[in-house]
Each structure stands twice: as C-alpha cells, then as structure tokens.
Design a protein that fits this description.
This protein is α/β, with parallel strands linked by helices and 243 residues long. The protein has a single domain, classed as Rossmann fold, CATH 3.40.50.880. Helices cover 26% and strands 23% of the residues. The strands form two sheets. Strands 3-2-4-5-1-8-9-12 form an eight-stranded mixed sheet, sandwiched between helices. The protein has a four-stranded mixed sheet with strand order 6-7-10-11. α3 runs parallel beside α5. The radius of gyration is 17 Å and the shape is globular. Pfam families: Peptidase_S51 (PF03575). GO terms for molecular function: dipeptidase activity. This is Dipeptidase PepE. Its EC number is 3.4.13.21.
C-alpha cells in the first residue's frame, strides 16, 4: 500500500491545502505515475464539494494530473475503480463514513488501495477513516445513523488534530482523558495521536512518521505510559498491532 495520512489540511503559513506534505505527495504520485486523481469531498459540510475539489486541484497543479470529484461521477463505484490515486478531504468524519457506506464505496476503495496499489491521501477525517473504526474522531455525530467501521488500512485507531493541552477554566475531559476512556472500554487496542502538521506514510510494508514542524506522534495503550515518537522515525511496528 501507499498511504499518506495527514492530521490536517493546513498549518500556519500554508496557502494551499496539503501544502506541508506536498513534497511527499509529489514523490508518491510521480513514482506511481498517477494521471487521474479522484477527490472524495463528502466530509465537507460548510462549503461545497466543488470548492474542495478545486482546492485539491490547485495544490496538485504542478503535476500533470486530472483531478475530479467523486460527487460528480455518474457511477461513484466505477470512479473509485478507475482512479489512479484517491485524495480524501477532511471535514465531518461521521458524514464521510456514512456516505461511503451508503454509496457502497468502502469495498471498492479498499480494493483500489490494497489490491491495485492506488495511492491514498487523506487528511483529518480522511485519515481517521483509514483506521478499523472512526470511534476516536473528534467530530460530533451530526447524522442520525452512527456507522463506525471504516476502511481499516491500518490496524490502530487514529486521533487526528491531536493536541496535548488543557484550557484554563475548562472542566470537561481533556483529549488524553477521552482517549483513556476509549482504551478502558477497548483494552486491546491502540490509539495514535497525530498532531497538526504531521502525517503517517505507508510505502509497501514500511511505515514512517513525518512532521513539518517536528511535533512527536503520541502512542496510547491502556495501562502504559504514553509513548512519544519523533518525526522521521520508522513506525512499521504499528502495522502489526491487533487494532
């Protein structure tokens, strides 16, 4: 597989979406001789799917590729089957995952990535759905049908936009406490917190952790001290986890 799982779309100083990881994306798309890029903008709520597709096209304008939005396809399943690369936008994870299930796209996307070797780039919600389930998303479930199983490209849970912080005067649970709650209920699973400006890169059987700003990855397991992993590290061992 070729995966680039970004915590978010932009960091300070960026003008284009995915800009902080654009070198890595360019390398993968060039190596795989990508011509047709399929954008999945279903997670977008507060702007249009066309606008989000145009943002991705602008970011990839230096490449000789054709960028189209899956929402414009007469047959979304066939569009997934024909794509040379898939870019999945951030937004609301619950809406994204439900839409993929409703349209019968989970299987075709899995087949494209795992069997045909189609590169998959996802940020925020698009990264979270690469886990077995979306139960560690930060998003509110704004749809009535809560569907949690997702693409399962990686065996661990993902918490995108991870932040190790407390807010003065805020009496609710911190991000770490919410993750701890998940692990108490799901004791055999791991949660990987990827902070802003960072991404997980899978190439074949190897996974590395990268960050444009040097922020470490946070690896959570029940009854174990949180493990910090520095940018540039090989984290292939994460691919051997049992969920």
């Amino acid at each position: 597989m070729d995966l680039l799982l970004l915590s978010n779309g932009k960091i300070a100083g960026n003008t284009k979406v995915m800009e902080f990881a654009l070198s890595a994306i360019t390398d993968v798309f060039t190596r795989k001789q990508v011509k047709n890029v399929l954008v999945i903008p279903y997670a977008v709520i507060r702007s249009s799917h066309d606008d989000r597709t145009a943002m991705v096209a602008e970011s990839l304008s230096h490449l000789d590729v054709n960028v189209t939005g899956i929402h414009r396809a007469e047959d979304p399943v066939e569009a997934a089957r024909q794509a040379d690369a898939i870019v999945c936008s951030g937004g609301n994870t619950w809406v994204l995952n439900k839409t993929l299930h409703d349209l019968g796209l989970i299987g075709p996307i899995q087949q494209a990535v795992t069997q045909r070797g189609v590169p998959y780039v996802g940020w925020s919600a698009g990264a979270v759905i690469s886990a077995p389930t979306i139960r560690t998303t930060n998003d509110m479930c704004i749809v009535s049908a809560a569907i949690t199983p997702s693409l399962g490209f990686v065996p661990f849970q993902i918490n995108a936009h991870y932040i190790d912080a407390t807010i003065e005067g805020h009496m609710g649970e911190t991000r770490d406490e919410r993750i701890e709650e998940f692990l108490v209920v799901n004791p055999h699973q791991s949660v990987i917190g990827i902070p802003e400006g960072s991404w997980l890169a899978v190439s074949g059987d190897t996974m590395t952790y990268e960050a444009a700003n040097g922020k470490p990855l946070h690896w959570f397991k029940l009854n174990q001290e949180r493990k910090l992993v520095q940018a540039g590290s090989d984290v292939t061992e994460l691919m051997g986890l049992d969920g």
